[in-house]
């Protein structure tokens, strides 16, 4: 599993979720992406779709990090 910081938050992901990482970094501005991170922190996860209809789940981990998976 790879790790990257997105808007200051540590995110773990597999290679098949790289497009979701790119979407959060490059396609959304910080405030738009923040909504997904806040929802994941409060509910345990958030789901979203990128511009190419890739579907992802962003989960909040007990250690304060996030995990992004492709659905």
Short description:
With 71 residues, the protein is α+β, with helices and mostly antiparallel strands. It has helices spanning 18-27, 30-43, and strands spanning 2-6, 9-13, 45-49, 55-60, 66-70. The chain has one domain.
What characteristics describe this protein?
globular, single chain, alpha+beta, 71 residues, 2 helices, 5-stranded mixed β-sheet, 34% helix
Classify the beta-strand content into a percent band: 35-45%
Unreliable spans are none
Continuous helix count:
2
How do the SSEs run, as a string of H and E? EEHHEEE
Rg calc: 11 Å
The number of domains is: 1
Q: Could you give the distance between the termini?
A: 16 Å
- The overall pLDDT average reads 96
Helix/strand-derived category reads: alpha+beta
Tell me, what's the shape?
A: globular
The strand line-up of the biggest sheet is 1-2-5-4-3
Q: Tally the beta strands.
A: 5
Q: How would a textbook summarize the main sheet? A: 5 strands, mixed
Q: Helical residue percent?
A: 25-40%
């Amino acid at each position: 599993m790879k790790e990257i910081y997105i808007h200051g938050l540590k995110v773990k992901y597999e290679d098949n979720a790289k497009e979701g990482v790119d979407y959060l970094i490059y396609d959304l501005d910080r405030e738009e992406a923040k909504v997904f991170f806040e929802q994941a922190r409060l509910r345990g996860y958030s789901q979203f779709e990128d511009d190419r209809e890739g579907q992802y789940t962003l989960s909040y981990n007990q250690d304060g990090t996030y995990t992004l998976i492709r659905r």
